[in-house]
Amino acid sequence: MSNNENEKLVYDENQIQVLEGLEAVRKRPGMYIGSTSLRGLHHLVYEIVDNSIDEALAGRCHRIEVTLHPDGSVSVRDDGRGIPSGIHPKMGIPTLEVVYTVLHAGGKFGGDGYKFSGGLHGVGASVVNALSEWVEIDNCYDGHRYTERFERGAVTRPFRDEGETDGHGLYVRFLADSTIFEETVYDYDVLLKRLREQAFLNAGVNISLRDERDPENIREDDLLYEGGIRSFVTFLNESKHSDTVHSDVIYMRAEKENFVAEVALQYNDSYTETLLSFANNIHTMEGGTHETGFVTALTKVLNDYARKNNLLKADDKNLSSEDVKEGLCAVISVKLTDAQFEGQTKTKLGNSEMRSFVYSLVSSKLSEYLEEKPSVGKSVLEKALSAARAREAARKARELTRRKTVLEGSSLPGKLADCQEKRVECTEVYLVEGDSAGGSAKQGRDSRFQAILPLRGKVLNVEKTRLDKVYTNSSLIPIIQALGCGIGEEFDISKLRYGKIIIMADADVDGSHIRVLLLTFFFRHMKELIEQGHIYLAQPPLYKVYKRGANSHATERYAFSDEERDQLIAEMGGHGIEADRYKGLGEMDPEQLWETTMDPERRTIRRVTMEDALACDEIFSLLMGDKVEPRREFIEQNAKFAENLDI
Coil, strand, or helix at residue 67? Predict the structure, then answer.
């Protein structure tokens, strides 16, 4: 850069910007709600609902109504106390207005307003206001009704006392700002899952969701679970379509000063665990101290019980935590006044005192329960001991395969066409369905950074299989071997050989089945690959659109949906334009496969995320489990979506 150009770049106090009020939120919305995608859009609803849930935690709210309106707006009504609406002593404006226009203003920072709370800790209401085209408030507090309207964070209808009322509670209606969000159409099922979760976690609170966007097809769900997390465990086990090992849901609760802990658990006959934990109603997906206390206590109690009742002999090894978690379905919910979250997504509880609190609760209550219900204790121990035997069999199978160099880090599968690049973050491996497509992919790839592994034989359904069978399965060993990071207890993501793992299967029912089988395998045995964003789905085209009689690739276009096919035909003139549907990847020559599915400049790949682990767990259990009837019902109900099925 020349000296003259340098002189033009002035950097002094005038370049230091101060964003006033809610301007900072509109400038950088991702800092406050994570993203401006559909995930961020739904987060707006969660924030307003969480404020009502905080009223429920305080014992002042019993019903919450969420409504999706035809104009695209959402309203949340509760029967809580409402928001104090006098003039704020520090700000000099109505307190209702402070809550919706000032960041970090709320009743959750000490005092007697709220003992427990979740949400964005004082920024939720103001962030929703900042990111909405408009917000309307109807607030009934202490015998009076107050209203106010905002547009993009600014007051447009001033705060007004509408007179006396016998009602109480808050009504908030808002329209998300279409200039901020990529999409502004809410997914009913996404909201329903979140609201159902909140209804389970807050026993006795009635939460309803109503969709009025299509007047001809109004949908409504009313959620009320008096059993709380006990009902949650029952729901989860029913969702897994597995038989339970014992009929009762074991429930424990303790309260002390500023702590409350609840635990509910029940074993089923599956080989997988479902362990969900929450702190102040926030789903702690990364676990934390409450989970550690629970698992440690569960393992100790079952080992002590097994020793005491001679189910473990003197020279037998103790059961591991993995053994006692097989088939476990459990929900842990803790509430505390000063929750400390850590981890990348701030969803890992860090309060050390909660570990010992939960450990003490489970140690004492579960021991008492097993003494009172010896039949349950015996059934649970038999399952754990069976898991321990399978784990030992898996260890022997692993050692055997190692002796055959199958899982050695230096040994790679024979069909793998590796890449030249050694930097993991720059590489990708395609898991390709079929030898024919695998051959085209090997010829069409960029061998500098793309590796190809053709899939061999039918992929094992791991939902119905213990780990010892996985180690001897010819369809999965090459995948484990190629990735290099191991599975189960030995999984080590630092040894992963490729930054992107791309599943490439035909765009048909069989291809969808293979994708689900592979995703089930990764979900059950290499979950961290999904959590850290390493798993992708290739999106091969459905159609080749071309001009009849022309032989040149220049006339060929590719469509990934029926709508795109019709659009391309129209763009190319219509007359003489053909559209052939691909029956499989093997029909493409190497150049076509590169152009449509493998070229980073032109391809479409979809990252597999863990945003809704509960939904993944439900679907994998349903589609891959033993029971046929629930799977048939799911297919019949979703048959109309088959054309667009991604996985």
Answer: strand
Of 382, 389, 372, the C-alpha closest to 267 is 382
Catalytic residue among 492, 510, 591, 633: 510
Q: For the segment 325-345, what is each residue's pLDDT rounded down to a tens digit? A: 999 999 999 999 888 887 555
List the catalytic residue out of 65, 148, 326, 433. Answer: 433
Is 589 among the residues known to form the active site? no
Which one of the listed residues 197, 506, 595, 617 is annotated catalytic? 506
Could you state, in order of their start, the residue ranges of all structural domains in the chain?
A: 23-223, 229-392, 404-540+606-644
Per the prediction, the chain carries an average pLDDT of 84
Q: Is the dihedral of CA 521, 526, 531, 534 positive or negative?
A: negative
Query: Which of 401, 582, 424, 423 minimizes the C-alpha distance to 508?
Result: 582
248 is known as an active-site residue: no
CB of 346 closer than 8 Å to CB of 281:
no
- Range in 134-143, 207-216, 531-540, 610-619 with the lowest mean pLDDT: 610-619
Torsion of CA 638, 644, 646, 647, to 10 degrees: 30
What CATH topology corresponds to 229-392? Ribosomal Protein S5; domain 2 (3.30.230)
**273, 340 contact by CB (below 8 A):** no
Topology of domain 404-540+606-644 in CATH is Rossmann fold (3.40.50)
CA dist 416 and 431 (Å) reads 10
- Please give the backbone phi and psi of residue 349, each rounded to the nearest 5 degrees, phi first: -75, 135
Contact predicate 429/501, CB 8 Å: yes
Q: What is the C-alpha separation between 196 and 211, in angstroms, rounded?
A: 15
Give CA–CA dist 44/47, Å, rounded.
5
Class in CATH terms, 23-223: alpha beta
Q: What is the pTM of this model?
A: 0.74
508, 528, 564, 587: which one is catalytic? 508
